[in-house]
Design goal:
This protein is mainly α. The protein is built from two helices and no strands. Helix 1 runs antiparallel to helix 2. The mean pLDDT is about 85.
Length: about 60
Amino acid sequence: MGTVIIFALVALLALYGMFRTLREKNVLGFLFGLATAAVFGWFTIMTILHQGIPTGTH
């Protein structure tokens, strides 16, 4: 279940990068950030829906 946490962190960092590239008016960086946030955000949502929220106990 660590995969969900890693995917979520990557998606959040991609969102941060997207907004940062907007300030710098870097279109290519914004597009790559958007694609990364979309893909990893989708993986995060689907993993949570399919396997549940990680509880930390086994």
